Amino acid sequence: MTNEQHGRLAELNARVKQDLDYLNYPAANWSKPVTTADGQPVSDVVIIGGGMCGMVAWLALTRAGIANLRIVDRARKGQEGPWVTFARMETLRSPKNLLGPALGMASLTFRAWYTACFGEAAWETLFRIPRPMWMDYLKWYREVLSIPVENDTHVTRVRPREDGLLELEIAGGSKPSIVTRKLVLATGREGLGMKRHTSWAHSADDIDFEALKAKRVVVIGVGASAVDNAAEALESDAGEVRLLARRKEMPTVNKLMGIGSYGVTAGFARIDAEWRWRIMDYSVKQQTPAPHNSTLRVSRHPNAFFHFDCAIGSMREEGGEVVITTKKGRIFRTDFVILGTGFTVDPLSRDELAPYQDRIACWDDRYTPPAGEENAGLGRFPWLDDDFSFTEKEPGTAPWLKDIHCFNYGASISIGKVSGDIPAISEGALWLARGIAASLFIRDVDYHWEALLAYEKPELDGSEWTDADAPEPAHRTA
Predict the structure, then answer these.
(1) Are 366 and 130 in contact (CB under 8 A)?
(2) Residues in Cβ contact with 165 at an 8 Å cutoff, skipping those fewer than 6 apart
(3) Are the C-beta atoms of residues 183 and 168 closer than 8 Å to each other?
(4) Angle subtended by helix axes 425-443 and 52-63, to nearest 10
(5) Which of 13, 65, 129, 209 would bridge with 27, disulfide CB 3.0–4.6 Å?
(6) Strand locations in 38-125 (E)
(7) Residue 45 β-bridge partners
(8) Do residues 40 and 78 make contact, with C-beta atoms less than 8 angstroms apart?
(9) C-alpha angle 384-386-388 in degrees, rounded to nearest 5
(10) By the 8 A CB rule, do 409 and 192 touch?
């Protein structure tokens, strides 16, 4: 950065601090202090995930006066989330002017940071946000807000305790377990599922693309992640890359853009289950196309080939190569396969939630879709309350589930896309903070009642008025 850029960024940092000060930040902590029976400290909230979702959740909770919280991430500092790990697109899909995790503060937007670093003229010519630059913005966001993410902290198990608290086990045994009243799973796109995984690589795996030089590569799928991984392989000089799509033609319309509005964000969670299911089922089955520039990134290579109507029948290793047979009998032979087939969402697949995974209510436990709208994948999404908390499949069998909040992609069908995607993440964070604050207040209402009764700080000291009916003081006689 030049001296001028450093100066502008310093001015922005000061503006953020001032804006927060004007918003009375940080708010005074109001929650009841809690310890275990043996005096161990207890957090009000622990957030798992120090990426975009986790950090905006931390800010919303802090602004709500919940100060006794921790935020942890298993990744090294600067490696949180997908942006510089398994995400491989050149630019974000989201338009550059979306507000993202700014939580209503203009000084916290990507635009404010970008123009401070590169100037207004550069902003005007910017098409989309380069993916690594989004991570640079999030690093600044963490720094300017002094968010205390505890990196290299991998929660391997969440255990409900007899005293009603949750205990988080940490991998490796080098750090003590964490006890908390509330848990937020801010774990992103893969936050309630597993990668669809075989002995071949998934698009979200750590792939050695340099090893694919001169190799034949097949990518299953033509969605955004499939196209991005195909482009990486081509740019690493793969011999050929073939993308196999089960559809007969390339999807071209991003259907959810047709109703994108604040109305959808605000109202989705309040419409009937039938409508939520219908909208999500329709959008999933239509499939979201890869962005225009991402697709061109692949097709400009003469050794890239798109194949349609190629639903996979089987894959097998044979003589040092992978043999793929489509359901129509077409055969492709290749050296390496990348599965660009997305993620599953299923609470029962997460080791952290064992051994009570099967007590979590999912959509297929609560809702039976009409004929033509069956969707096994959507059925495994958790059925959440409006504060993102899990619900019990059978009431009374797992009451602690109300204290685990699913602030990740798994909330999409219950509450909408407000806990993973950039456009409405601030709205989701505000709802989350409001829900957690309400839950803690209601749980401790006796404590707050006693505080009300005990409050004796006077506003007036008696010098501000005169009682007109008070007897006049007796006059002294000499």
Answers:
(1) no
(2) 34, 36, 42, 179, 180, 181
(3) yes
(4) 50
(5) 65
(6) 43-48, 69-72
(7) 69, 182
(8) no
(9) 55
(10) yes
Torsion of CA 139, 143, 145, 146, to 10 degrees: 130
Tell me which amino acid residue 383 is: W
End-to-end CA distance of the chain: 86
Other Cβ atoms closer than 10 A to 170? 19
Q: Are 115 and 4 in contact (CB under 8 A)?
A: no
Tell me how far apart the alpha carbons of residues 331 and 315 are, in angstroms, rounded to a whole number: 10
* 202 close to 342: Cβ distance less than 8 angstroms: no
Give the H/E segment covering residue 449: helix 445-454
Between CA 56 and CA 421 the distance in angstroms is: 12
pLDDT digits (tens), the chain, 478 positions: 788 888 999 999 999 999 999 999 999 999 999 999 999 999 999 999 999 999 999 999 999 999 999 999 999 999 998 888 878 888 888 889 999 999 999 999 999 999 999 999 999 999 999 999 999 999 999 999 999 999 999 999 999 999 999 999 999 877 899 999 999 999 877 655 544 444 377 766 778 899 999 999 999 989 888 999 999 999 999 999 999 999 898 988 887 777 778 898 899 999 999 999 999 898 888 878 888 889 999 999 999 999 999 999 988 888 888 999 999 999 999 999 998 866 666 665 677 888 888 899 999 999 999 999 999 889 999 999 999 999 999 999 999 999 999 999 899 999 999 998 889 999 999 999 999 999 999 999 999 999 999 999 999 999 999 999 988 877 655 5
In 261-395, where do the E strands start and end?
Answer: 304-307, 312-318, 321-326, 331-334, 336-339
| Cα-Cα-Cα-Cα dihedral sign, residues 54, 56, 59, 63 | negative
- Rounded to a whole number of angstroms, the CA Rg of the chain reads 27
Residue closest to 416 by CA, chosen among 277, 287, 282, 289? 277
pTM above 0.90, yes or no: no
Contact indicator for 334, 322 with CB cutoff of 8 Å: yes
